[in-house]
Amino acid sequence: MKLRFLVFAAACGLALRAADLPALWAERVKSCVAVEYVTETETERAPTVTLGTVIDAQGTIIIQSGAIDPRAALWQLKDFRVHLPGNPIGAAAEYLGQDAFTDWHFVRVTDEKIRAQLVSITQFAGDGPPAAPALA
Q1: How far apart are the first and last CA of the chain?
Q2: Model's pTM, two decimal places?
């Protein structure tokens, strides 16, 4: 009997937690954007779209290291645009550069109106001290 009660209580707890997922998603999806840009060579224009994460209130977006071809010169990277979820138009952005240690790339939204709609991922950090890794 106790086992049934514990299983029922655990299932109710999971259901209550799952009810918060849509609210959490709606809040955190404002930190995710699509970054579109064009690599222009002598013979073609190659459009690329990749995922970006907003990392500060100034509209700076971090892009994974493999998203931009390392063989492309800076002058070949053109027409950066940032698309918010559900917004196909997008906003102009500028390429800031690449971090030499991590190889991640950085882009900043130039449109203040769009920048105000973005939420930095750091806003969701916990209130307590950061968790320290430990062996179990």
Answers
A1: 32
A2: 0.75
